[in-house]
Predict the structure.
Amino acid sequence: MMIPNNLNILDMHAAGEPVRIILPGQLPLKGMTILEKRQDMKRRFDPLRTALMQEPRGHADMYGAVLTEPCDPRADIGVLFMHHSGYSTMCGHATIALGRYLYDDHLKGHPDSPRRTFRIECPCGPVEIRLTEDDTGELACAFDSVDCFVEGMGEIAEVEGLGQVTYDIAYGGAYYAILPSSALGLGRIDIHRIHMIDAARRVKARKLQAFRSYRVAKRRKCLSLLKARSMAFRAL
């Protein structure tokens, strides 16, 4: 295994959310599918993820995107999403940043014919990106992701330090546990960020244990079933 000593990387953000992009053509990932390429990334190049996502070059909230040749011939680019603790199947803010990157990259070679729609191949499936321009000339990026669905309603789990917690499970490119902040003893407005993150991590850790024996794990055993910050709070 040869890990490159130098990489061309582009740092971007979407409304302040960080994305570190490894530009295409640098990592010779092997695989007939995007999931096989992600397994190859884990097996041969994971030290790059830890070097780029973790301190001192990264931090707990750093997100990354590895651009690769798509396996789907309809896609413009393939992408693997990563973060400080592993890999994920989808990332909304990274997808928005990628839309702007693809727009600018195409514009360099075609200054008179800007392109505003792109298709990216993600581990969760194909995602369509579109860019629009407002009256001031500013660009906005939106995307159509894979189908969403509710996996479970009113699920109950015993969570260390929090007691019995009731939540819903939904899928939107990744699985999310959804519950009111009040269910975790957190206030409606004065929620301390550290307390929210700690509660989310506790619930996530408990659900990862449950998902390993759940039928969804059998159906999508190659996917990371919950994102690193897979909590959606309703302020109730």
